[in-house]
TrEMBL record:
It comes from the Bacteria. PROSITE patterns: HTH_GNTR. PANTHER family: TRANSCRIPTIONAL REGULATOR, GNTR FAMILY, UXU OPERON TRANSCRIPTIONAL REGULATOR. Keywords: DNA-binding, Transcription, Transcription regulation. Coiled coil: none annotated. The keyword Hydrolase does not apply. The keyword Metal-binding does not apply. It holds the Pfam family FCD. Residues 9-77 form the HTH gntR-type domain. This is GntR family transcriptional regulator.
Amino acid sequence: MAVESIPRRTVVDLLEARLRGDILSGTHEPGSLLPPERELAAGYGVTRTTLKHALTRLEQAGLLSTRHGIGTRILDYLRVGGADLLPMLAAQDPTWLREVFEVRRQIGTLIAGRAADRRTERQARRLEHLLRQVADGPDADAVQLADVEVHRELARATGNRVYLLLTNTLFNAYLPVRASLRAPFEDAARATDRLAPVVRAVVDRDGGEARRAAETYLAGTEKIMLGSLSSSRGRPTADGPR
């Protein structure tokens, strides 16, 4: 049996996460300059080399801007950022997931209609095959990941690569926390029954029905997932209620 290795986090990884959290939580306000590197490194208890590596990553992520002779400024990510920031935002603040799912529902409904209009025979067969993989999933995680592949194929069937990239971005935002969102996928048969009308409508080239089925499916699974997330966050711990 293969054992998945546990990724090791370096000091740079930890510092990047700490700085990112401080930026996204408002500890370092947008538009403000970070303290000088020597002072900042001392404050976080790291070397300046480690700090530079972490700052470079955050600059590449679109959270910082460094200008020689001026310093490192916190960017307003809501003004200049892109959808690639969603994974870190959702990981930092679970309330982002509600907004991610709202967009997932709207984009997913549009994609289903477009897929019904444009899918090829090969894509129709591929969708039916992927739906069977949902039904055959041995556990909730496998079912959820199989479900994801159905939606990727729906996006691919639109013939528009931007829809596929948008779909990937939305999945990237919440798949890292999918263990907390697996409630709709615990029962493979029920998960398949919920998704099947979407696939059937696309295979039948019925755009209107595909949009209706996708709206029903996405709204329903969204409600279940967010409900399970709220329940898990409010569950008592050994130290009492959270």
